[in-house]
Amino acid sequence: MLDYLNGTRTLETDILRTYASAPGKVILTGEHFVVFGAPALAIAINRRIVVGVNQRTDRRLHIVSSLGKSGEFEQDKFNLEEGGPEARDFLEPVRIAAESVLKRYGANKGLNIQVNSDVPVASGLGSSSAISVATVASVGEAIGLNLSKEEILDLSLTAERFVHKNPSGIDIAIATFGGTILYERERGMTRIEDMPNLALVIGNTGIARNTGSLVESVRRRRDHFPSTINPLIAAAQALTGSAVEALRARDLEKLGELLDINHGLLAAVGTSCIELDRLVYAARSVGALGAKLTGAGGGGCMIALCSDENLVTVSEAIRRANGSPITVVKTEEGVLTWKEN
Whose CB among 4, 127, 217, 244 lies 3.0–4.6 Å from 9's, allowing a Cys bridge? Predict the structure, then answer.
């Protein structure tokens, strides 16, 4: 877990006073198709973002990331400290999330904000959404609000739209509520209880990608070929329903087959790539129950559903195929807040 959780890291400028953490996620089925109304099935994982906040005496927002980017916002002016030209773009969603809370509740305050990440960025694991959710929750705590999870979800949407243009909402929902959720754009989320633990290996290609651009590319493909893509959306809807049934029946072999099919649907709408396919087929070749890309695609990560016995074998196969394997488990905990003693 993160160093400062056991007291060994603080902001350079001051001692942190409030904290919030939010989990990353993997989407088991339905990504991209969820934008068009199909359901998606997601689980929160035991990789988390932690954001610490304390108030300043001025109205500036000073933001430091554990990923080597830092700077200070004073209204629309940005003063770079570390991280090069891309630092502002990286830190901007944090500013937007913090200001969404400050503006809604009329709090004219400056803040020191530190973001510590245990979730790979731009990889399909929900890091940007977890950052938005944890920032909103920690800022709310810092200015004395008792935000409900529903309020945190609503406030986090502002930063999510900045990052992803037209987000489905599933990432911030899972970061806020944790566990296993079925998400539909029109109906929102349904939390699914009493789900089995899944043995999952994530394979990271190391290729960063832009979720908003990939979502738009799928939309364009659907606009160009509606008679072809619309049946794929319907197939994805049916597939997610079958995946929920397989989970409830604890039929992991069936779930694995459905993951394989889902990868094929995502490849058909243009979101896979050779690097992802290489990791998917490497995992399958050594006995993974199923494997698919997770998230936006075009790079980022894939997931392999494993038996407990072949986690190591699948991890090594992914490594040999030039991926970085990460073993994860589901977590029931969504966003958490606390104050420093």
Answer: 4
